[in-house]
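BUG: 3D viewer hangs when loading the predicted structure for this chain

Environment: internal workstation, default settings.
Expected: structure renders.
Actual: progress bar stalls at 90%.

Input used:
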Amino acid sequence: MKLSAIIIDDEPQCREVLAKELQPFSGKINLIKICASGKEGILAINDLNPDIVFLDIEMPHLDGFDVLSMVKPDSFAVVFTTSHDEYAIKAIRSSAFDYLLKPIKADELKITIDNLTEQKNLKNKKRFDFLKQQIQNLNDGGIHKIALSTLKGVTFVDIDSILYCESDNSYTNIFTVEAEKYVISKNLSYYEGILPSNLFFRCHKSFIVNTNHIENLVKSDGGYIVMKDGKSIAIARSRKKEFYQFLEVNV
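Structure tokens produced before the viewer hung:
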């Protein structure tokens, strides 16, 4: 079954480009409306009840977040589109929403479409409320939780409870102090850009570790760390000096 979609964007060229890029996915996505303003988008959402809304963040009068606050955000999946705004992007990523950077690239759109058609529970009011809180937290200095989107749905996890993140090709395995393992269809670099850099360190191409949960640092045998769950993780030679400095340990 096709998913119905609308585009909400105040920039004519951006609307046209996204509509054109969606054409190859017409077997999965039925574009039913293109809106030039937040106000027009609200009317379209209420009248057409789309499955997906491609929503520009930065618009005059009513921006993307204003639009969501004036409709029922649990009735459709949201894909944010934006040119920049570092805080907004970090909040979006940490809330497990999809987003597209302008100018939109065909390969990135394909990944997004695959996520929309494969994942469950994309319509989630709790996640939207969480996003609003993330934006506030970032403005206040930092985030304390992240949303993890798995095949089973969306889970909200305390950042402090994360032991380490392990790369598994295009997936990331996230392990917590509660002995939970979450498999996420995002690569490790995605989470490197979300997790607080004053707490987490990428000590190896395949691992990001929570330095608060390091049990032991071993300098012999090439150098490795032991996490509180007993997991031994190698320290890449190219990152060793920086990692030791990060831990305030003399090489």
